[in-house]
Amino acid sequence: MVGMMDRNEILQLYDQQERKNSEHPPYRREEAQGVVRHVHPDPERLSFIIYSDLTAENADRVVQDQVNWYRTQINGGGLEWKTYEHDASTSLPQRLAAHGFEADEREALLALDLQNCPDVYLQPLTADVRRISDPDAVGVVAEIQAAVYDENFDWLEKQLRTSLTTQADFWAVYVAYVDDVPACAAWISFPANSRFAGLWGGATLSKYRKMGLYTAVVAARAQEAVRRGYRFLTVDASDMSRPILQKRGFQLLTYTTPYTWKQPEND
Q: pTM, whole model, 2 decimals?
């Protein structure tokens, strides 16, 4: 068994595998000027940058170059640049804001070492958690998200349907049921050439909270990650889910904040 890793070691591995060298199908990966960007074939979907190696001397120029590239080459739904608080300080958040990027909510990047996984995630499930493999059945996930957040999630249904159709090995979708009623939904990504499986979603209808469904859906995904040979689970956690996960073995690696640039309407 590989020895336990400390926070800094996990972060270094995460930066290498999940930021610098990561692949996110169907996005096209590109490297330019110390930036790794991922471009979706549908221009209406956000392109994103999750890794950059900038200095105080070149940061402003590179940020503006990326805006110019997006404006002239893509001109679509927007460019998201994700910042990480453990990165070397180049005042990147302030520079992004100065170039027209708007900050979203800060999230906590958490990781669970599956070689030191709490029993709660490894014992047989008692909740009715089902893996959704039919692309035409993912509408229930969008319905749960819409009910929890009071927003339209038609885009998510489309995204998950496409993902399960074209990248069935990369994604797995889970739904927890109570008396055959869909109550909690989440999904997980299994990137190639990485030791990190990514947790996404995890919304529970208010009527069914405090029944252990959120934990059960984490457990279902953790058990699949173990079967597939992944070492870590990671999640960008909101303020609501972070304390739940930290009580169950997840550790805080760093904080992240996405900044998004969108084409001005008068361009």
A: 0.91
